[in-house]
Design goal:
alpha+beta; Ku70, Chain: A, Domain 2; 8-stranded mixed β-sheet; two-stranded antiparallel ribbon; 6 helices; 10 strands; extended
């Protein structure tokens, strides 16, 4: 089933322009969602905004955005004020520059979106931009307004389409050197590496989406199905948690691990 379009606009590179649509690459549609209920009546509970001073419920038309400039002192911003600062990037992804595909670390990538040509008229221009990036092993850098906030985005060719990654702001990414700097970079003994590489090799499999299934969701589905039928909740054996002991000899631990997996 096609996902509802999240954004419509234009992809632009100098004088080359085409209409495009964008859809989130991930979804939470299949995730179980719960409502808050009144245990006594079984009715749903509705959340409302309440004035912190008067205690009265605020009508939707009276709700406004405000920026705090002091304690209990706010500057009110109306929708017209927010529209006044709207940028061209609200409707256009204008590729300003290109960088090497591998130069942007994974930690900078935030949320992926799927970009497609909106019609057959712009399909050729879209394909030329996509294939040129793939051939040069580069990704495009542009700016785009998402949820009223301008973000830097990265355009990465993927198959017949383009993935648009929103990029995290600089102050959102911690410097790994501050945390890893105190760790030793001494290389482990060669015999340990041989055994560890062997263990990794024996556990290496082709990637499969089943590896990231959510067992909690499955069990919740079972509980809900049982309650619908008026049955008792399925019982679950209590898991025994045993704290791992200190490893006295890594070599012995690796040998025992390989031997136990062979036996299994």
């Amino acid at each position: 089933m096609a996902t509802q379009v999240y954004w419509k606009g234009y992809l632009k590179l100098s004088l080359v322009t085409c209409a495009v649509t964008m859809t989130p690459a991930t979804t939470e549609a299949e995730k179980l969602k719960f409502h808050t209920l009144n245990r006594q009546t079984g009715h749903r509970v509705v959340s409302r905004y309440v004035d912190t001073v008067t205690g009265k419920v605020v009508k939707e038309n009276d709700e406004a955005r405000g920026f705090a400039r002091g304690e209990d002192d706010y500057v009110l911003l109306e929708d017209d004020d927010l529209e006044a600062v709207a940028l061209e990037s609200t409707h256009t992804i204008d590729i300003e520059t290109f960088v090497d595909r591998d130069s942007i670390g994974w930690i900078w990538r935030d949320k992926p979106n799927l970009l497609l040509p909106a019609d057959s008229v712009g399909a050729e221009a879209f394909a030329v931009i996509r294939e040129a990036m793939a051939a040069t092993k580069t990704v495009g850098i542009a700016r785009l307004v998402l949820a009223r906030r301008e973000r830097a985005v990265m355009l990465e060719p993927r198959g017949a389409g383009i993935v648009v990654w929103s990029l995290r702001f600089g102050d959102e990414v911690r410097d790994p050197a501050e945390y890893f700097g105190s760790l030793s970079d001494d290389k482990p003994a060669a015999n340990l590496m041989v055994l560890m590489r062997r263990m990794i090799g024996e556990r290496t499999k082709p990637w499969d989406a089943e590896m990231v299934q959510d067992p909690v969701q499955d069990r919740l589905q079972q509980i809900i199905a049982a309650k619908k039928k008026g049955l008792r909740r399925p019982t679950k054996a209590k898991a025994t948690v045993t704290a791992p002991g200190n490893v006295v000899s890594i070599l012995d631990a690796l040998k025992k691990s390989i031997a136990s997996e062979k036996g299994g």
